[in-house]
Amino acid sequence: MSDSREMILIRGGTVIDGTGTPGRRADVLLRGDRIVAVGDPGPVTEARTIEATGKVVCPGFVDPHNHADSEVRGGIAAHPLADNLVRQGITTVICNQCGGGTYPIAPLLEAVDYIRPVTNVAMLAAHAQIRSHALQDVGAEKPTAATWERMRDYIRDEMEAGAYGVTTGPLGRTQAEMPTAELVEAGRAVAPYGGVYASHIRDEGETNGHLAAIEEVCTVCRETGAKGHVSHLKLWGHCNWGATEPVLEIFDRAERDGLTMAADQYPYIGGYRGFFSLLWDWADPAQPDAEWRRGAEAEVRRQLDLLGGPERLIISSHETDDPLDGRSIGAAGRLLGVPPEAVVTELYRREPRPRLSAFFLAMREEDLRTFMCSKHTMAGTDSHVRIPGSGASHPRNYGTYPRFLGKYVREEKIMPLARMISRMTARVAEQFGLRDRGRLVPGAYADVVVFDPATVRDRATWQNGYAYPVGIEWVLVNGGITVADGQGPERGYGRALRRGQ
Asked: Cα separation of 143 and 359, whole Å?
């Protein structure tokens, strides 16, 4: 595919500009990496023309929660043409989430500028990595005031290097291990830069502490002035299903108090974790014995009950031709001749221990829709780079944005198309402070998606997470054609995005 960034005319489409304004018939003219006209551009010669009659033309989707920087054999720096993201319309990813895995960020951003991947890449500062360095620097095993001061210095350095905020991951940590005061200090480091404090909160419902966990993000915002962001908002576990009102009231109250609080959300009822995370809170003995097994299986029963039963946990194997791949833990138990809770301990004791992940179908559709319709939420994937054959894949890695557009807008009509596109574009860019992204207006960067609103849909499933969507026909990143007629890419036009630039 040749470099076609001199001049491109997208003709005859319905332009939805990302602001929430209803669509209108308009042509879009691109020159180089910028949008130069939306409407009637007048006589245009020597431009490549993309016919968009009957199609929607909108800003490229900005993913507020992505792990492309670090997962799967080096992430996007090692696989710049991995297309599972751009073929669903994503043109910018905001990476280093859930506490982060990349530190420092400067080398990765420099690599992105050099290799030009298929999407733009923005980064948050990694609290987990930074606190580890700070603890080592001061020779402490537990957080202290000296540790927090050093941590703040490291976070500020990352903000100067271009980070858009800081990400924390206190999931499962006690106050003794990671006190709220430490998270406040992380927020204090980014607030002067207009940065975001994003958090994989302490509890998403697993132990009924999710409300306090969201309130903790409010506390950080209130005490520091940072923007607050709850990662992949959900209600985990059937005992919490239906209790969306208290969650959204926290966001409403924060807004009344003048705080900036938002959340991202993916459109699936299942989360994704390692299969043996079922034993995270259980001791890992050198020699598992009968007593250990009884206790471990009781813990697994508790977690399966929280999900709503063994059919709501689906095993995803990283090995080819694994007979357990795609089966529920209940079906796996029937295959192995053991109760569902014993599947975990049975496989845990095998040598070598199998490489397994799992889909935890811990949420319900009604709650997804309620959160989706809230003014406080925006679309996100919680995805990462995937290479076919590289192991298990959550369907969100391939289908998130087409699912929002096809299932929830076209089929279920939960909101107007323009509003959905806003929460996938301008809403995200505003929350994270991305300049000239997320809007299809003259002067903005030419990140553009052309899709068919009548056919767009996701195809990836729990059993086949590698299926590409349909209906995403053209994707341009910084004016470069990356997806053409639903196919691509042969090269990338992505850039490293740095705060303040």
From this structure: 34
CA 408 to chain centre: 18
3-state SS string for 176-232: CCCCHHHHHHHHHHHHHHCCEEEECCCCCCCCCCHHHHHHHHHHHHHHHCCEEEECC
DSSP 435: T
Q: Please state the three-class secondary structure of 333-388 as a single string.
A: HHHHCCCHHHHHHHHHCCCCCCCEEEEECCCCHHHHHHHHCCCCEEECCCECCCCC
Question: What distance, in Å, lies between the first and last C-alpha atoms of the chain?
Answer: 29
Q: What is the pLDDT of residue 58?
A: 98
Please report which helix (H) or strand (E) contains residue 417, including its range.
helix 417-422
List 6's β-bridge partners, or say none. Answer: none
Q: How buried is 131 (Cβ within 10 angstroms: 0-12 exposed, 13-18 middle, 19+ buried)?
A: buried
CA-to-CA distance for 97 and 212, rounded, in angstroms? 21
SS3 per-residue string spanning 297-336: HHHHHHHHHHHCCHHHEEEEECCCCCCCCCCEHHHHHHHH
In sequence order, which residues have a C-beta less than 8 Å from that of residue 175 and are 6 or more positions away? none
Contact 467, 478 (CB under 8 A): no
- The pTM score is 0.95
Q: How many CB atoms lie within 10 A of CB 416?
A: 14
Give CA torsion, residues 322, 323, 327, 328, to 10 deg.
-100
Report which DSSP code applies to 482: E
Q: What is the DSSP letter of 405?
A: I
How far is CA 467 from each of CA 73, 418, 463, 488, rounded to the nearest angstrom?
20, 26, 10, 15
- 426/414 Cα distance (integer angstroms): 19
CATH architecture observed for domain 59-270+362-436: Alpha-Beta Barrel (3.20)
pLDDT reported for residue 285? 64
Q: pLDDT (tens digit, 9 = 90+) per residue, 223-269?
A: 999 999 999 999 999 999 999 999 999 999 999 999 999 999 999 99
pLDDT for 286: 64
d(CA 324, CA 375): 40
CB-CB contact of 378 with 64 (8 Å): yes
Radius of gyration of the chain (CA): 23
- Amino acid present at 137: D
Distance, in Å, from the CA atom of 450 to the CA atom of 58, rounded to the nearest integer, reads: 7
Residue span(s) of the chain under CATH 3.20.20.140 come to 59-270+362-436
How far from 351 is each of 313, 338, 346, 472, 499, CA to CA, in Å?
A: 23, 19, 11, 44, 47
**238, 206 Cβ separation under 8 angstroms:** no
